[in-house]
Amino acid sequence: MHLRTAAARRYAVVLPLLGVLALALAGCSRDQYPQTALLPLSDFARIGDDVQDTTFYWALGVFILVEGALLYSVFRFRGKPEDPEPSQIHGNTTIEIIWTLIPALILAAIAVPTVKGIFETNRTPAGAMKIEVIGHQWWWEFRYPDAGVTTANEMFIPQGKTVELVQNSADVIHSFWPPRFAGKRDVFPGRETRLWWKADSTGLFPGQCAEYCGIQHARMAFHVRSVTPGEFDQWIAHMQSKGPKAPAAAPAGDSLKTASAGAKVQGPGQDSAAGAPQEAEYAKGEKLFMTKGCMGCHSLQAVQAPKGLIGPNLANVGARSHIAAGWLKNTDENLERWIREPQAVKKGVLMPNLGVTVEESRALRAYLRAHQ
Amino acid sequence: MATTALDQQHAHAAAHGEKTGLWSWITTVDHKRIGILYGATAFFFFLLGGVEALIIRTQLARADNNFIDPDTYNQLFTMHGTTMIFLAIMPLSSAFFNYLIPLMIGARDVAFPRLNAFSYWVFLLGGLLLNASFLFGAAPDTGWYGYANLTSRQFSPGPNVDFWNMGLQVLGVASLAAAVNFFVTIINLRAPGMTLMRMPVFAWMTLITQVLLLLAFPVIAVALILLMFDRFWGTHFFVPAGGGDPLLWQHFFWIFGHPEVYILILPAFGIVSEVLPVFSRKPLFGYAAMVFSGIFIAFLGFGVWSHHMFATGMGPIPDTFFSLATMLIAIPTGVKIFNWLGTMWFGSLQFKTPMYFAVGFIAMFIIGGLSGVMHAPPPADLQQNDTYFIVAHFHYVMFGGSIFALVAGAYYWWPKMFGRMLDEGLGKVHFWLMLIGFNLTFFPMHFVGLNGMPRRTYTYPKELNLEALNQVETVGSFILGLSFLVFLINIYKTTRKPKNAPADPWNGATLEWAIPSPPQEWNFDQVPTVHGRDPLWELKRQRGGPLPEPPHTSGAGIHLPNPSYWPLVSAFGVVSIFVAIMMSPKWGPWGIVAAVALLFFGIYNWLFEKGYSEFRTPSHGGH
Question: What is the mean pLDDT of residues B60-65?
């Protein structure tokens, strides 16, 4: 091997590149990414993760060997124009058969867990709780058919129980992707698709639409809130109180107790010390909600919620961690701005700017905030 | 302009001198000129697609950025993909097919020279039609794959989708016409003695690519026509409300779309298979395995389309079939990589610029191939699909693969095409900038994707913590852009140098290096007879040294096809039909009738063009 200065100079160029790659690798420590697919929190996600790991380690081995051979030949077989012509080898059948068979064997080693994983992921465990997922431009509707409850953009699930999603779209194709719990499953108009998982742990986890679905595809996110089975039952019971004939939500008080899970992360808007002025705001907001046309697209009932509405169900909007389909934090300020100028916040969204004034937006915020 | 016999003779006499001027390019039917036209046009579109990519990267450099509007972003990512696939990589490959196939197989031109010109003009006009959408602020915005039912009138009321639909139909006409032409050329016009198994591997890969084009493009044409009916004449092929099925579009699209991937990469395989042996001074290792693995890849390419659709939930049986078929493709692809390594092994490697890019191709393509195997298993692909992991994967294949190889080919054949050697120093700067920029841009995307960033999103929230890696990618993309600036400087510098490239600057093995650089219009004074796979090496070995510089000759008595403008007129006819369909809601059916009439007028005159029906136009009194 002739390690001339030219070759050494080439090393000098390759090394920084490797350094940068190492930096990039260092950037991949997974736990800092809330939406990572590399830290599965369910049985379903682990099936895919295991297959991915198997494939990755085989690929890494092949990568090191083949790139190593390439680099070796680049330095070892470097020649000068005046060097004698190398011997003219046209091929070698034995070697060619060997390097056809080895990849075939590696692929067989990947194929076995793959096929196993395919059949496992396609079989829903018995006794799963059904949740209907309906994709809309650009938000998510979630219906719990057994409990008769509807919500939007924040999906509650009980930890340790299998949920089965039955998915449909109201308009174009979307794809439901909660990376911590499962890979994505497309959501079609006029065609049902399914997905299932059993969550290991509790917490609030982001996910988002993964099939390009129009101008605001990027901001069609959602959250999965995994809670203990007890908290889940409480939440269902709370939602079941939001029926068509139920009295309108009170401005303060009871919501704090019942929406325990939601209240954990939800700070603003629950200041019960506000008292009378807040009640006035609430009454004003209620009136505006009826007169400004909000009712045309949004429902405030979790029970017997009408289907086919253009806008998300708002029965518990006050308690959700995010608004505008999972990407704006649900603060008072954000909620008011979102009500006032949806087209500036999320251009092209189907909610028009309705000419809501700053004061009106404050009242509407108070009214919606009370819907915990 | 009347085509009298006198005009014909005049044009032909000029042919044997140096033809110059705009008109000579507009009416040219010379495969070499058409190849240069393809190359220049495609390179322009490549730069355009690159600028689109840089705007995309600028927008993504920061979380929650609003450097550009969401609708602008959606138009840009759609046009970036559509441009790079249909207006850059495919026609760049066509540039090499055009320029080199007749030279490599020892022919005077392609089988149908005017059809060749027609293909180019249709391609050019199709590309302009597609990009004209920018002038109306209505560039296509539903992705290069245009999934139904987002493309229906209900959800895409503007002309954006129509520009895309019509543009792609026009480009399909160009591709199909060219595919017929090159298929027939390679089958019928090979020099005596050049059996199929003596053809250069580039000719083989070109032949396979034409078969893929002939079988895949009709599928997308049908799908686009159905979509056109849905959008213009009220049918419901893909509209669920009318009993149609958007999933049907996906099957149509990927039955075309997956072979399309091989249409983009097989020519690159061919180029690298020419460059590596020459700069290793050793014949290609395992020629037969190279040819048959190419055929096998193309064949399997028609049986894996649904691996783009694992997330649709097809059920365990189709998932298993398409997953295993996909893995199978890794075997012939691996064979190719090992054979390239075998070609270099024990060789005497000459590190000229083309060799840098060819080796870079192998190194990058390995990564793209391996990440491809990583999404063959559906349980894993459910996470990877539609994320930046996929974006990383296919850029390692399309850029790390196709573009590296095409650039290798450009440096390798530049002296043959233009008679001037590109600068070696700048070439190597180009290489290192491109390698570094490319990896900085696309390597982090693997992590960005698996850590939760979906594709085709105009922004991402800061909470996802993906900003730092996205910034690295953006820096990389500008280094990548810079590398092509160096290439442009190299081209500019080179065009100012005297034309002094020898006929055979690299000690080539194939026929094109036996004739002057650039070749004379008729290519070969005498059609060569071929006795083996590396005909020029054999000749040089027999002589015991390099060949003498071939003399420039007068070409007297050599038959050449006449220049013709009817291909251009016919191309206008084709494009106006689609423009007229687009405008039919305003213009009514008469626009379409007029456009069809124009096409028929062009084809009629083409058929009965003087000097062609007899094919008898000797310049100096005939033979």
Answer: 96
How confident is the prediction for chain B on average, in pLDDT? 94
pLDDT score recorded for residue A268? 43
Instruction: State whether CATH 1.10.3720.10 applies to domain A129-233.
Output: no
For A35, name the nearest residue in chain B, comparing CA atoms only.
Answer: B452
The class level of CATH for B17-553 reads mainly alpha
Residues of B in Cβ contact (< 8 Å) with A183: 311, 379-383, 385
Do A243-369 and A129-233 have the same topology in CATH?
yes
Most confident by average pLDDT, B362-366, B555-559, B606-610: B362-366
Cβ-defined contact of B240 to A188 (cutoff 8 Å):
yes
Per-residue pLDDT at B603: 95
8 Å CB contact between B134 and B200: no
CA distance B480 to chain A (A): 14
* DSSP run (H or E) holding B93: helix B90-104
Contact residues on chain A for B335, CB-CB shorter than 8 A: 96, 99-100
Give residues with Cβ within 8 angstroms of A29, minimum separation 6.
none
* pLDDT score of A250 more than 60: no
Instruction: Identify the closest residue of chain B to A181 by CA–CA distance.
Output: B383
pTM: 0.92
Q: Does domain A243-369 have CATH number 1.10.10.410?
A: no
pLDDT higher than threshold 90 for residue B4: no
Which residue in B150, B254, B382, B479 has the most chain A C-beta atoms within 10 A of its own C-beta, making it the best mutation to test that interface? Answer: B382
CATH architecture of A38-78+91-123: Orthogonal Bundle (1.10)
Judged by CB atoms closer than 8 Å, whether chains meet at A69 and B341 is answered as yes
Cβ proximity of A216 and A138 under 8 Å:
yes
CA distance to A68, A161, B169, B285, B498, per residue, from B122 (Å): 45, 59, 10, 39, 34
B227-238 pLDDT, tens digit each? 999 999 999 999
From B69, B283, B327, residue closest to A90, measured CB to CB: B283
Q: How far apart are the first and last CA of chain A?
A: 74
Q: Of B182, B117, B179, B124, give the one whose Cα is nearest residue B563.
A: B117
Whether A210 and B454 lie within 8 Å, measured CB to CB: yes
Label residue B587 by pLDDT band (50, 70, 90). Answer: very high
Contact A86 B439 (CB under 8 A): no
Inter-chain CB proximity A20 and B459 less than 8 Å: no
For tokens 């990896």, the residue is B439
Architecture per CATH, domain B1-16+554-623, reads as Orthogonal Bundle (1.10)
Chain A residues within 8 A of B241 when measuring between CB atoms? 189-190
Closest CA to B385 of A177, A221, A153: A177
Mean pLDDT within B481-505: 96
pLDDT band at residue B560 under the 50/70/90 scheme:
confident
